């Protein structure tokens, strides 16, 4: 299958050798194999798992968005995406800790909704980074 991951800032990835995609949708995970029926899904913040034809697992963080599946092509449109190996773990641990502290002791000017979103996104990035090397390839019968 072909896979494209696009953000407003960049064309993060375009590959033609993808065998499996695990989408993290707002209603749960959806596995996509070749010849999957047409689908449009709303993505949640979290990990996008890809597997190429050589069974190499590729992990990306996506910050929500949409996925379209049609004619053996998966297109991911997301505000932000990052390969797991490029996630700055120390930076996102600091962001997570600061957001958690603000929610524990909110000040008068604390935007609770924004701070919760920041915490959720930091935790999702950290989870994606921590999955590297711990996710086995999907196996299917041929």
UniProtKB/TrEMBL annotation:
It holds the Pfam family ATP-synt_DE_N. Residues 1-80 form the ATP synthase F1 complex delta/epsilon subunit N-terminal domain. It comes from the Bacteria. One of its GO terms (molecular function) is ATP binding. It is a peripheral membrane protein. It is found in: Cell inner membrane; Endomembrane system. InterPro entries: ATP_synth_F1_dsu/esu, ATP_synth_F1_dsu/esu_N, ATPsynth_dsu/esu_N. One of its GO terms (cellular component) is endomembrane system. Its main location: membrane. Keywords: ATP synthesis, Cell inner membrane, Cell membrane, CF(1), Hydrogen ion transport, Ion transport, Membrane, Transport. Produces ATP from ADP in the presence of a proton gradient across the membrane. Belongs to the ATPase epsilon chain family. NCBIfam families: ATP_synt_epsi. F-type ATPases have 2 components, CF(1) - the catalytic core - and CF(0) - the membrane proton channel. CF(1) has five subunits: alpha(3), beta(3), gamma(1), delta(1), epsilon(1). CF(0) has three main subunits: a, b and c. This is ATP synthase epsilon chain. It comes from Acidaminococcus intestini (strain RyC-MR95). The gene is atpC.
């Amino acid at each position: 299958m072909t896979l494209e991951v696009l953000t407003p800032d960049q064309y993060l990835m375009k590959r033609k050798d993808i065998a499996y995609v695990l989408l993290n949708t707002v209603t749960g995970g959806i596995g996509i194999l070749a010849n999957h029926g047409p689908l449009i899904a709303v993505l949640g913040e979290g990990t996008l798992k890809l597997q190429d034809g050589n069974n190499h697992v590729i992990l990306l963080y996506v910050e929500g968005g949409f996925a379209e599946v049609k004619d053996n092509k998966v297109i991911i449109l997301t505000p932000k995406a990052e390969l797991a190996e490029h996630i700055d773990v120390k930076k996102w641990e600091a962001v997570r800790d600061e957001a958690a502290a603000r929610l524990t002791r909110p000040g008068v000017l604390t935007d609770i909704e924004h701070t919760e979103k920041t915490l959720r996104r930091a935790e999702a990035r950290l989870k994606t980074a921590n999955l590297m090397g711990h996710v086995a390839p999907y196996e299917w019968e041929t």
